[in-house]
Amino acid sequence: MNRTATDHKFDFETLVNSIEQYDKIYRDDITRENYFGFPIAPILEAEQKLLDNKVKSVAYLSMEYGLAPSIYNSFQLKKPMSEKNKFFKHEVFSNYWISDYIFKIKIDKMLDIPIYSGGLGVLAGDTVKSIADLGLSVMSVGILWNKGYFKQNFWYKHGQMPEELSWDPWSYPGLIPLKHRVSINTKKGKLSLRLWKYYVYSYDKKNVCPLILLDSNVEENTEYFRKLTDQLYRSDHVSWRIFQRSILGIGAIKAIDSLGCSIDRYHLNEGHAAFAFIERYLQLSNKADMQDEKKKFMYTCHTPVAAGHDRFNLKDIGEIYGDEYIQAAEKFGKEKKDSQDMNLTYLCLDNCAKVNAVAQKHGEITRLQFPDFASKVDAITNGIHIHTWLSESFAQLFDRYSSTFGDWRRSPALLTKAQDLMGNEDFRRDIFEAHQVNKRNFVNVVDHWKLDPNVLTIGWARRITGYKRPSLLFHKIEEILKIANKVVPLQIFLAGKAHPNDNIGGAHIDAILEHIDALNNYYDIVKVLILENYDTYFGKLLSNSVDVWLNNPLPPFEASGTSGMKAILNGVVQCSTLDGWVVEAEQDDIGWIFGYRHEGSEIGSENDLRLDEDSAALYETIEAMAKMYYQTNQKGKINLQSPWISKMINCVRRAAFFNTQRMVEEYNAKMWELNK
Ligand SMILES: *Cc1c(COP(=O)(O)O)cnc(C)c1O
């Protein structure tokens, strides 16, 4: 391991000299004072700390990062943004097809750096932002996906048609290519990786968390190698999956070493990064040192769903890597003696010093799934980064009541003080109005669909996959019509992508489009819109503007879920099954909890979706919700005593806990033990 001495200095020249084509492309945007419009000093300081072996540092490895720069800390460019890095294609499929046919949603926005697919990536992005907010010394590592995840098109009768996404990393604000290369020896030849850097700033711009992105799209690689980092989670052949995971794990270790970073902890965000452990082992000249090396590895397990746990046949690994890798995979990653697979989850559970699940309930389930490691599994509940997900109107609300909320930007835990305002009529009016501001904003974005800000609006948006039950709401469509006819009109917004190879997820999208079409004659009472290309921009817009956030996974398969946390931060009440993070808020009256409850020590099957019982429970809940909503908001006349508003206040109060600042502090206290 080639560790650089502490007196190695990282200054402006070091940065500039490391950048490929600095003079040609980046000179105007990176100066002695500024980095794409942000102060440059925190970058030099963070890099210096990573080189210093007297400062304890962590490497955080994740396959994906949802950094959402279109909604938070957007870097500036001196020249106009390249058209390739803009994104406006959000069509709508609704039961008001005339508008779908004529109009698109028009937003002039930057494409969020497309290196994420969903919640796991958004969590990683929020984590590094809170790391920066707390000023911890962490180097994060991921992959530069040259074609992103994919672009989604809805085609009636065909469902989701995935399309390749193209963007331009060379002109993406804040992203810089290093001259530096690292290489991995494979049986198919030498695989060379370019390193990119991106700096994630704290909310006060005083600290950064550097992010290295690995990229195989370099001239010296073969055509096949160049495509390996094209599409996130490409899974049509097992060798893609092995390559993508090993590029992350092996590439990260090589990058850290060759940049001279002094790292004391390796945090593997999901089993994807497990090859990092193998690589460390292979580097050791004295294999007995591995006992000490193991103490440096930490692992976060994110899912109880079988597809989330990678297993690779040793023969398939042997097609790519030499015998030493196979022997190490056998030594550390075999679930059972006679197995021929390396199981990345098992490898991490067995070898990492610290392991955490992502919510308390998920901790219980993980212990049931892996009884051999039960005593090792801790649970640290996920969160969201409040500065990314808080709407402007709610930030203003908290500032208006600053004598109660204090410096909530620095200490999100202060949001718990919302409790003190429960009986304050002014606050009750102001929180409802702050919400209406967000709702009207969204209604304006989709103005051609003639939505009404005083009609009860339900939102569902997340990755489309079986256990999340995306079409539960439409299971008996006549029941929705019954509610709408009897009580009230309804507005429903949906969004989400299914993995292109997930046939069940794809079938759900087909079904949703069919259901929406079947409601064509009922637009006056039920308006249903599904938006194409769900991303972090729309994640924020939707989660803070609807009245009710619907979350209906089949318990106990939602490890945590985070979109509901974005909603409660903005006073949006929950309609949820009892799973993931919601279990920890069951007693807090943040909305409505319905449906199947998981109990006991059998995990059950993710294929037994319980649609009949749970849709019936959902319709009953919607009817109760609707009654309360229209007693609260009578065509714009607001009843300030309504328990609905109390629920909204409870939501904000609980957002004090469900954030990544609290989560990262727990990571640090229980796993990293860095000095602040
Ligand atoms: C927050 C977010 C998610 C995660 O949603 P879950 O509730 O965890 O399913 C997924 N995708 C995007 C774009 C998000 O912003």
| Total of helices | 24
Structural class by sheet pairing and helices: alpha/beta
The strand count comes to 26
Would you tell me the overall average pLDDT?
95
Total domain modules = 2
Are there runs of 5+ residues with pLDDT below 50, and where? 1-5
Shape: globular
Protein model, in words:
This protein is of the alpha/beta class and 676 residues long. The protein folds into two domains: 12-100 and 113-382 and 664-672, Glycogen Phosphorylase B (Rossmann fold), CATH 3.40.50.2000; 392-596 and 608-658, Glycogen Phosphorylase B (Rossmann fold, 3-Layer(aba) Sandwich), CATH 3.40.50.2000. Helices cover 37% and strands 18% of the residues. It is built from 24 helices and 26 strands. The strands form seven sheets. It has a nine-stranded mixed β-sheet. The chain has a seven-stranded mixed β-sheet with strand order 5-21-20-19-22-23-24, sandwiched between helices. Helix 5 packs across helix 24, helix 17 packs across helix 20 (536-545) and helix 21 (563-569) crosses helix 23. The longest helix is centred in the last third of the chain and has 22 residues, at 611-632. The protein is globular. The two termini are 27 Å apart. Pyridoxal-5'-phosphate is lined by residues 118-119, 122, 462-463, 534-536, 539, 561-564, 566.
Describe what is shown at a glance.
The protein has 2 domains: 12-100 and 113-382 and 664-672, Rossmann fold; 392-596 and 608-658, Rossmann fold, CATH 3.40.50.2000. The protein is built from 24 helices and 26 strands.
Please describe the structure with a list of short key phrases separated by commas or semicolons.
Rossmann fold; 2 domains; alpha/beta; binds pyridoxal-5'-phosphate; disordered N terminus; seven-stranded mixed sheet; 676 residues; nine-stranded mixed sheet
